[in-house]
């Protein structure tokens, strides 16, 4: 078998033999053109060069001689592949004969360049060697002299030349180019002969014609023919031109036909059929629809007669057929139709204002556009415009208003169009788009039913009973379809949402609920949902879909009328356990639901076996629970939810040992939380395993840190003390010390109180006091006051009141200011009980520095009562002096405002008595600028007239109102 290189070499070798006629062969360039037999012929032609008969005779004699030789020669030595590629020039004799005849024809044309007979014979000879043998077609009957273009196209398509065994366009490219050059020379001498142009254009229809010739060069040749020949001969060229354009297809066909339609619109219907079913390009339904609409309107006005004999209504029907087939490409959608109807309504309202001198409408703005026959431009009839059509308006305006007796077909066409548009319901992805399409479609169906009802109420005169019954049947069908459409709306909405996100579990659940008690549909929906949803892309609660599907079979269908099918439910749950859910807890829910299903049907052993399968521990337990690269099945054994259900199941129907084994596995896997620890210990305690329960508490305190371990310690210590009391006091003390060792200050107060109570009940009072002493030093600051209070109460109960003095003193050193004041009051009360009046007064004086008279009036009232009861005039004056100094100390703007706010809260109202505002606005402004007044000294300054109002300001008002028992001493007595 020859290689690819050998094949390419042979093709190049064949192509190198061409062209054989370029340059034009002559005896001077090729001596083989003449033989001894040709000498006499050449001498006769040289003697009579102007004799056409001599040249014609010599050419025909030579041609007949070569034809005889070619017929006698058999191409037995020529391979089939070569014969297929070279065609008539496959043999050396054929190529030699072509050269000899070309020499004679060229010499004759040099003498008679204007002879059409000679040029025609020459070109036919050249075409026979390049295009092959022409097939002569037989036809019956004659031809019309001046046929219509539609008939001319059909006839020309039948009579178009065809050839056999032509020269390949690639191998013989040089010879094809030489033939084209010969035609160009002939047209240079005889440009006005249409027969010569037709022969030239027939070359372009040859199947082996090179693409460089049969495309752009052919189009330009047709154009030159139209420019050269007279208009009366254009029809002969246009027939070939249109047929050639149809063979090329695409934009070539469209551009050529558009040019011809500008001259002769009679082939518009034929052109629309080409647009709808092109050979090698996409359909152009919008242009075809606009052309047919234009023809229908022109026909209705009497401006167009269809060559096929179609009426205006039939043309409109053809337009509707296109609309029904290509609704998305031709017509507006719902939104655009509504906008177009509104715009047309405005145009109709303003049409009366736009008039010309002839009384016709004119365009007053916009670019220049072509106009129709009526002088008004209509974009619906412009095939070059990309704007779609308002089908509803066109059917109403050009159909229903004109052809009232054909309303059924027009309504059906419009309904089909909207049904095709309504298929968008099955493709839209948003509720907004669905609502627009559905509402428009429902409104249209309603209007169609109303139109049918009106036609029944007001029948036409020529309507018979059969037509009326047919209309009634159609109306019944439409009403049933409309009711079914309304009933299907929830399903259609659900379809939209599922198309937008097929992994939406909640929408699938809604789909199931829509089917109600239709068990077959419910089962199909569940099956389709589980087949469609991608577990890694699903929304939340995918596992609930499996669980609900299993319950569907368990409960005997949606209505519960069927027999429960536990086997199918188990199969579904078994399949669910193999799904790689997003979260481990979802898979754990599947196993738990499966076990619960077995429990509901009293299959207790099976329920335990299910949980044993789910909680099987693999060999490698070091798997990270939060490693999402691993499937959930590999991480399931660390699911606390699964183990919690398992241990609850064992507690309910298992034994103590099996339950302990499950709890121990939880502890070994280190997935237990504080609640599991407490539950395990409580379970052991219920079964009298006291020491084992305490060991569980200890394991919990080792695993967890504060603050979680605080709760475990709290329960552990209370249980231990309750169990053993003082029998194991040292062990209890060790436990308390261990608990307090790492306990943070904010959490240790309950443990100290429990520890102290243990020592009081079973130990020594001295140890209890030392524990309370430690507690006052360790607890958080916010708990120290309460801790000191408890400490003082315990000390009083054990050692008496005098023993609490050092405790009070230490409390006053460490407590914050506010709590120090409270503690001082209690300390002073203690001293009063013990009869130590001077110590009590000193404590009051110490505490006064922390008490603002406006914020803590209770302290000053108590001190005031103390001085009245036990003091003298000097001690009372000293108390007043301290009060004024403390008030002056706290009398700053920030603390004043804070005091006012706090006092208002204590009194239950935010209103405070305000000073009398001066009548003069300037005086009020000066008073506001000065701010709150300070307490003026009585000895060093005299009150001014403008300070009388300041002294009655809100800062002194609470003292005058609250201190009713104050003893007033005049200045003379003070001095």
Topology at a glance:
Blueprint: H1 4-15, H2 39-47, H3 52-72, H4 80-86, H5 92-111, H6 116-130, E1 133-134, H7 149-159, E2 163-164, H8 173-189, H9 194-202, H10 211-228, H11 234-248, H12 250-261, H13 268-276, H14 285-300, H15 312-325, H16 327-330, H17 334-350, H18 391-400, H19 407-422, H20 431-457, H21 465-487, H22 489-500, H23 505-515, H24 519-532, H25 542-554, H26 566-576, H27 584-600, H28 604-614, H29 632-635, H30 640-653, H31 656-668, H32 674-686, H33 690-703, H34 708-724, H35 729-741, H36 749-762, H37 765-778, H38 781-799, H39 805-814, H40 817-833, H41 837-848, H42 857-870, H43 873-890, H44 893-907, H45 921-930, H46 948-951, H47 957-962, H48 971-974
Antiparallel strand pairs: 1-2
Helix pairs in contact: 3-5, 5-6, 6-8, 7-11, 10-11, 11-12, 13-14, 14-15, 15-19, 18-19, 19-20, 20-21, 22-23, 23-24, 25-26, 25-27, 27-28, 27-30, 28-30, 30-31, 32-33, 33-34, 34-35, 34-36, 35-36, 36-37, 37-38, 39-40, 40-41, 41-42, 42-43
What does this structure look like?
The relative contact order is 0.02. This protein starts with a helix and ends with a helix. The chain is elongated and about 175 Å long. Helix 15 runs parallel beside helix 19. Strands 1-2 form a two-stranded antiparallel sheet. It is mostly helical and 975 residues long.
Quick take:
The protein is mainly alpha-helical and 975 residues long. The longest helix is centred in the middle third of the chain and has 27 residues, at 431-457.
List its salient traits.
975 residues, mainly alpha, two-stranded antiparallel sheet, disordered N terminus, disordered C terminus
């Amino acid at each position: 078998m020859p290689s690819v290189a050998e094949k390419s070499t042979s093709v190049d070798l064949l192509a190198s033999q061409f062209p054989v006629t370029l340059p034009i062969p002559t005896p001077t360039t090729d001596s083989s053109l003449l033989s001894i037999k040709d000498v006499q012929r050449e001498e006769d032609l040289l003697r009579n060069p102007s004799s056409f008969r001599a040249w014609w005779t010599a050419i025909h004699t030579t041609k007949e001689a070569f034809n005889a030789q070619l017929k006698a020669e058999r191409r037995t030595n020529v391979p089939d592949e070569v014969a297929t590629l070279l065609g008539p020039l496959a043999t050396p004799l054929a190529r030699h004969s072509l050269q000899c005849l070309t020499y004679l024809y060229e010499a004759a044309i040099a003498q008679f360049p204007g002879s059409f007979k000679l040029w025609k014979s020459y070109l036919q000879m050249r075409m026979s060697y390049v295009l092959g043998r022409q097939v002569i077609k037989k036809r019956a009957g004659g031809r019309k002299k001046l046929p219509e273009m539609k008939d001319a196209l059909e006839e020309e398509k039948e009579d178009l030349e065809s050839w056999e065994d032509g020269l390949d366009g690639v191998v013989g490219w040089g010879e094809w180019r030489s033939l084209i050059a010969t035609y160009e020379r002939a047209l240079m001498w005889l440009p006005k002969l249409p027969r010569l142009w037709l022969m030239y254009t027939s070359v372009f229809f040859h199947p082996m014609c090179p693409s460089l010739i049969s495309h752009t060069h052919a189009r330009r040749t047709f154009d030159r023919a139209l420019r050269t020949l007279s208009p009366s001969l254009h029809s002969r060229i246009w027939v070939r031109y249109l047929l050639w354009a149809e063979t090329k297809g695409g934009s070539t066909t469209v551009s050529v036909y558009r040019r011809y339609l500008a001259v002769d619109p009679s082939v518009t219907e034929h052109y629309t059929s080409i647009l709808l079913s092109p050979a090698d390009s996409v359909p152009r339904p919008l242009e075809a629809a606009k052309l047919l609409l234009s023809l229908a309107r022109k026909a209705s006005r009497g401006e167009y007669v269809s060559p096929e004999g179609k009426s205006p209504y039939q043309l409109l029907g053809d337009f509707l057929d296109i609309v029904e087939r290509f609704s998305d490409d031709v017509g507006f959608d719902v939104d655009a139709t509504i906008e177009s109807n509104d715009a047309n309504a405005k145009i109709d309202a303003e049409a009366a204002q736009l008039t010309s001198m002839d009384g016709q409408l004119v365009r007053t703005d916009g670019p220049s556009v072509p106009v129709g026959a009526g002088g008004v431009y209509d974009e619906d009839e412009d095939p070059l415009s990309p704007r779609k059509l308002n089908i509803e308006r066109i059917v109403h305006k050009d159909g229903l208003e004109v052809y009232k007796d054909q309303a059924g077909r027009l309504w059906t066409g419009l309904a089909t169009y909207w049904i095709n548009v309504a298929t968008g319901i099955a493709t839209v992805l948003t509720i907004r788009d669905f609502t627009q399409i559905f509402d428009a479609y429902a409104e249209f169906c309603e209007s169609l039913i109303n139109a049918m009802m009106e036609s029944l109420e007001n029948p036409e005169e020529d309507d018979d009973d059969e037509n009326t019954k047919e209309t009634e049947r159609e109306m019944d069908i439409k009403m049933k379809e409309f009711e079914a459409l309304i009933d299907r709306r929830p399903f259609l909405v659900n379809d939209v949402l599922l198309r937008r996100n097929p992994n939406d579990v909640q929408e699938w659940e809604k789909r199931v609920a829509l089917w109600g008690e239709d068990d077959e549909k419910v089962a199909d929906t569940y099956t389709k949902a589980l087949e469609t949803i991608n577990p890694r892309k699903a929304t939340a609660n995918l596992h609930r879909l499996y669980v609900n599907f299993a319950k569907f079979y368990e409960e005997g269908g949606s209505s519960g009328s069927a027999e429960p099918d536990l086997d199918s439910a188990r199969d579904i749950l078994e399949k669910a356990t193999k799904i790689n859910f997003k979260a481990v807890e979802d898979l754990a829910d599947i196993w738990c639901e499966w076990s619960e299903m077995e429990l509901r049907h009293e299959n207790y052993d099976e329920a335990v076996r299910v949980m044993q399968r789910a909680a099987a521990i693999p060999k490698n337990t070091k798997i990270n629970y939060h490693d999402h690269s691993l499937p959930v099945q590999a991480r399931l054994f660390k699911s606390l939810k699964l183990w919690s259900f398992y241990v609850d199941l064992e507690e309910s129907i298992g034994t103590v040992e099996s339950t302990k084994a499950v709890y121990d596995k939880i502890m070994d896997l280190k997935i237990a939380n504080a609640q599991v620890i407490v539950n395990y210990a409580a379970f052991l305690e219920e079964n009298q395993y006291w020491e084992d329960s305490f060991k569980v508490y200890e394991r919990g305190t080792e695993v967890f840190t504060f603050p979680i371990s605080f709760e475990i310690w709290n329960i552990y210590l209370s249980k231990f003390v309750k169990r053993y009391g003082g029998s194991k006091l040292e062990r209890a003390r060790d436990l308390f010390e261990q608990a307090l060792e790492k306990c943070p200050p904010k959490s240790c107060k309950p443990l100290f109180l429990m520890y102290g109570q243990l020592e009081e009940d079973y130990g020594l009072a001295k140890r209890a006091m030392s524990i309370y002493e430690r507690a006052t030093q360790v607890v958080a600051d916010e708990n120290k006051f309460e801790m000191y209070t408890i400490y003082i109460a315990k000390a009083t109960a054990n050692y008496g009141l005098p023993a609490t003095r050092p405790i009070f003193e230490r409390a006053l050193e460490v407590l914050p200011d506010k709590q120090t004041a409270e503690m001082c009051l209690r300390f002073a009360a203690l001293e009063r009980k013990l009869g130590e009046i001077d110590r009590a007064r000193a404590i009051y004086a110490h505490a006064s520095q922390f008490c603002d008279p406006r914020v803590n009036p209770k302290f000053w009232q108590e001190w005031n009562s103390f001085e009245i009861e036990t003091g003298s005039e000097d001690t009372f004056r000293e108390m007043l002096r301290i009060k004024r100094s403390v008030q002056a100390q706290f009398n700053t703007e920030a603390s004043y405002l804070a005091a006012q706010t706090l006092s208002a809260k204590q009194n239950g109202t935010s209103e405070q008595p305000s000073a009398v505002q001066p009548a003069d606005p300037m005086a009020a402004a000066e008073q506001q600028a000065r701010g709150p007044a300070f307490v003026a000294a009585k000895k060093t300054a005299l009150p001014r007239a403008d300070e009388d109002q300041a002294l009655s300001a809100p800062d002194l008002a609470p003292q005058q109102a609250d201190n009713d028992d104050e003893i007033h001493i005049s200045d003379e007595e003070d001095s």
